[in-house]
From TrEMBL:
<keyword id="KW-0812">Transmembrane</keyword>
<keyword id="KW-1003">Cell membrane</keyword>
<comment type="similarity">
    <text>Belongs to the G-protein coupled receptor 1 family.</text>
</comment>
<dbReference type="Pfam" id="PF00001">
    <property type="entry name" value="7tm_1"/>
</dbReference>
<dbReference type="InterPro" id="IPR000276">
    <property type="entry name" value="GPCR_Rhodpsn"/>
</dbReference>
<dbReference type="InterPro" id="IPR017452">
    <property type="entry name" value="GPCR_Rhodpsn_7TM"/>
</dbReference>
<dbReference type="GO" id="GO:0004930">
    <property type="term" value="F:G protein-coupled receptor activity"/>
</dbReference>
<feature type="transmembrane region" description="Helical">
    <location>
        <begin position="101"/>
        <end position="122"/>
    </location>
</feature>
<keyword id="KW-0472">Membrane</keyword>
<feature type="transmembrane region" description="Helical">
    <location>
        <begin position="307"/>
        <end position="328"/>
    </location>
</feature>
<feature type="transmembrane region" description="Helical">
    <location>
        <begin position="143"/>
        <end position="163"/>
    </location>
</feature>
<feature type="transmembrane region" description="Helical">
    <location>
        <begin position="183"/>
        <end position="207"/>
    </location>
</feature>
<feature type="domain" description="G-protein coupled receptors family 1 profile">
    <location>
        <begin position="42"/>
        <end position="328"/>
    </location>
</feature>
<feature type="transmembrane region" description="Helical">
    <location>
        <begin position="62"/>
        <end position="81"/>
    </location>
</feature>
<keyword id="KW-0807">Transducer</keyword>
<feature type="transmembrane region" description="Helical">
    <location>
        <begin position="29"/>
        <end position="50"/>
    </location>
</feature>
<keyword id="KW-0675">Receptor</keyword>
Amino acid sequence: MNGTDGTKASISCDSNSAPYTLASTISQASFVIFILILDVCGNCLVIGAILHYRRLRTVTNYFIISLAVSDVLIAALSMPFRIHHTLNYMCWDLGQILCEVWVFVDLLCSCASITNLSLISIDRFLALSFPLSYRSIMTKSRGFAAITFVWGYSGLIAALSFTGWSPDAETISSNECKKSDPYYYLFAITAGFFLPLTILVINYSMVFKVAFTQAKKLQLLKSASAMEPGEISEADIRKDARQSIVNIGRTERKRRKSIVRELKATKTLAIVIGTFIVCWLPFFIIMFIVQFCGDCLLKIPEKGQQFVAIVFVYVLPLLNSAVNPIIYSSFNSDFRKSFKDIFIRICVIRGRDSYTHRSTSGDEDVSVVTFFTSRFGNGTTPQIVIQEANSASEEGDSV
């Protein structure tokens, strides 16, 4: 996402010859700052929810943490360079070392994102294909080993950016930050994007096939569970005399619940993956074209170049870093409940501070539970609020 994807051959560090107007520059910088805040807050919320709530501590969600970490790293290590670059009229004045660091961070995070998504697609295939034995197959130790491999693989690809592969390979850090090395980028784009993307597409094609089969089985299980006791033949009962009908029902309900859970998780992650492809595929295609045909994009009218640069190079890749938490909260009920719980906790802490201030500065005796009940408006206080309110009362009594 750095200068390697620019559409102009060279840029002069002069505000009068800047490719964008002052208003456009300010709006682009404001957009990046907004995405940075949304990225950090949203992905830290995802990480905090998974680590804090036992229900969310699954191997699949540990993979989601790994994906969220790559998005946070983009915000923390790459976007500040982007903001400076934008406010400096799309010119680079931070030297070669920081330019190489920017290239490395972009490659590391983008490769880690797509490789994490490929890992998630493998996990989804196993979860849907073997719903009852999945937990014994994908253990936490194997999951952490897979995450370590993802980051090691991505780090290796990114670290190779410090080497030169092409005869005329160089890192340009005067006026613009750009690594010119077609052979390396051919390897990096192939190994870091298109190979994981191919694995992802193959896995998800199998996942949807399995999901369709499991959905049909789910309907059969629902039909079987709805049968009256008299509809069960004596021959079926004699077939396994030791196993009671109650145990059969429990097994089938457990299987049905497992299939439903995995289907819901698969739907959410399919949306995440589809969003990633839409946001990043045009970027890597453009970067590939720039490396092997630097003048091809110059044939496009200037307005077209600016449109391509803003939409496919600037907006979509940055937007992808912040959109995943929104998807989780919209399509996954567990994440949605956890996010609400966290927000309620934040409101309780702020409200408790407000109550402490009021109770110590005034003579009126205010009930803590009544205070928080009025905050939520409907007269019913969530259990978490009651717990926090009680602890606040105890703290007030002990003072």
